[in-house]
Amino acid sequence: QVQLEESGPGLVKPSETLSLTCTVSGGSITSYYWTWIRQPPGKGLEWIASIYYSGSPNYKPSSGSTNYNPSLKSRVTISVDTSRNQFSLKVTYLTAADTAVYYCARMTTDGIIDYWGQGTLVTVSS
Amino acid sequence: EIVLTQSPGTLSVSPGERVTLSCGASQSVSRFLAWYQQKPGQAPRLLIYDAINRATGIPARFSGSGSGTDFTLTISSLEPEDFAVYYCQQRSNWITFGQGTRLEIK
């Protein structure tokens, strides 16, 4: 059974950078899109970014393997650490509008989001 | 960006009733639409993918239909555990979600 678990700070100051990590267990990180989605308190879901890992031993992230929500692209970076079965998200220049539960998830190459982490609440406040 | 509009926003129903939730897309997404259920404090759970296919372990009372711009999720007979928020999601042009429909007990 695939399991995903988010980790990172629960409180971040405005204008600072948020770093989140998702650890994948119970399955291969190969040949899926690893994805971040967020949900502000009491609101709906917003896709942030996805990264694809092909499993190639010479893997290097390319523009074709990472995809970003256009509304967040200038502030977001997604990356994968295959040696640790983890993927990560960085969001810069945080504001209160970035306060949300952040979910990591697995998306198939058909675009189906089939496994989710339990989510981690990130509050942006001074 | 493809905008998904769900209706109604909230639906008050009784256990045992049949309910139909709607999701409309601002442009055609073919059949690339999924439905998720979310309960308080939990991550969303995949119910239906590609408009009509039930995900693994999803009861047969859940069914999906539609294509192009108009989609529905039907629950044939509501069980107490079905009261939750339901989201549609398209994968035709990356990923967007509808704003959700809340099912509440009448």
Could you walk me through the main structural features you see in this protein, from its secondary elements to its overall organization?
The complex is a heterodimer of chains A (126) and B (106). With 126 residues, chain A is mainly β. In chain A, strands 2, 4, 5, 6, 9, 10 and 11 form a seven-stranded mixed sheet that branches. Chain A has a four-stranded antiparallel sheet with strand order 1-3-8-7, with no helix packed on it. With 106 residues, chain B is mainly beta. In chain B, a hairpin with a 3-residue loop joins strand 5 and strand 6. Chain B is globular and about 35 Å long. The N and C termini of chain B lie far apart (36 Å). Classes of the chains: A mainly beta (126), B mainly beta (106). At the A-B interface, strand 5, strand 9 and strand 10 of A face strand 5 and strand 10 of B.
Quick description:
The complex is a heterodimer of chains A (126) and B (106). By secondary structure, chain A is an all-beta fold.
Describe the secondary-structure layout:
The complex is a heterodimer of chains A (126) and B (106).
Chain A: E1 3-7, E2 11-12, E3 18-25, E4 32-39, E5 46-53, E6 66-68, E7 76-81, E8 86-91, E9 100-107, E10 113-116, E11 120-124
Parallel strand pairs in A: 2-11
Antiparallel strand pairs in A: 1-3, 3-8, 4-5, 4-9, 5-6, 7-8, 9-10, 9-11
Chain B: E1 4-7, E2 10-13, E3 19-25, E4 33-38, E5 45-49, E6 53-54, E7 62-67, E8 70-75, E9 85-90, E10 96-97, E11 101-105
Parallel strand pairs in B: 2-11
Antiparallel strand pairs in B: 1-3, 3-8, 4-5, 4-9, 5-6, 7-8, 9-10, 9-11
